[in-house]
Design goal:
With 243 residues, the protein is of the alpha/beta class. The protein has eight helices and seven strands; from the N terminus they run βαβαβαβαβαβαβαα.
Length: 243
């Protein structure tokens, strides 16, 4: 897939994996739109970068999403690549007083339902693009859960299933390519609470996505996600939860 001179939207693009991806794509002369909830954070992220436009939007807010879609169409004439990167996670252990239901509602709202909504809203303009793509950013935990991220793991497993079906359905009637980026632990602010300093750099995740675009690899097993993918379910669970 050609990834030069595209119009790209990256949700959660103000830091971490989203910003690393935005940097890589902007360097390839794409027009990259990054979204997030905080204007100052987005503006700081975009400093010194070419081809970056910031738009404040909460992907969980219906009105924000409608405004975002309308602005992209009005200002850019459409969209070629949607990268669903925004995420939310709670670190906790399941117990009688964990409030797993409340935490899961918030995680699923960002990690799954916002992806469904934004993707549906942008499908008409993506379909009109001569060469379009949708990317979901799931996780190694879509393959096997981590005990301290029980409902986050569940939300990413649900996103993995949705992505597989979306790829299958869109292939029937459109030319839209659907990619799933599945990183392991990454060294970002998002993952500090679970030892993110031991993770891979977000630039490695972005590199693997660029390579996948260029070679049409639709399920991207970054780092040791490839090893986990090759293990049995029992072995994978033990590997993720070791220590």
């Amino acid at each position: 897939m050609n990834i030069i001179n595209k119009i790209v939207l990256v949700t959660g693009g103000g830091s971490g994996i989203g910003l690393a991806i935005a940097k890589q794509l902007s360097a390839k002369n794409n027009k990259v739109i990054i979204t997030g909830r905080t204007a100052d954070k987005l503006q700081k992220a975009a400093e010194g970068l070419a081809n970056i436009t910031t738009m404040v939007a909460d992907v969980n807010n219906t009105d924000d999403v409608k405004k975002l879609v309308a602005t992209i169409i009005a200002d850019f004439g459409g969209l070629d690549i949607l990268i669903n990167n925004a995420g939310n996670a709670y670190v906790y252990n399941l117990s009688a007083d964990a409030d797993a239901t409340g935490k899961a509602r918030e995680e699923f709202e960002t990690n799954l339902f916002s992806v469904l909504n934004l993707t549906e809203q942008l499908l008409p303009t993506l379909t009109a693009s001569p060469e379009a793509a949708i990317v979901t950013v799931s996780s190694i935990l879509a393959l096997t859960p981590r005990s301290t991220l029980p409902t986050y793991s569940a939300s990413k497993a649900a996103l993995h299933s949705y992505t597989q079906v979306l790829r299958f359905e869109l292939a029937k009637t459109t030319g839209i390519k659907v990619f799933e980026l599945m990183p392991p632990l990454v060294n970002t602010d998002f993952s500090k609470e679970i030892g993110g300093e031991n993770g891979i750099p977000p630039s490695q995740v972005a590199d693997d996505l660029i390579n996948a675009f260029e070679n049409d690899v639709y399920e991207i097993h970054v780092g040791n996600t490839a090893q986990i993918y090759g293990l049995s379910q029992v072995d994978a669970f033990n590997a993720i939860n070791a220590g």
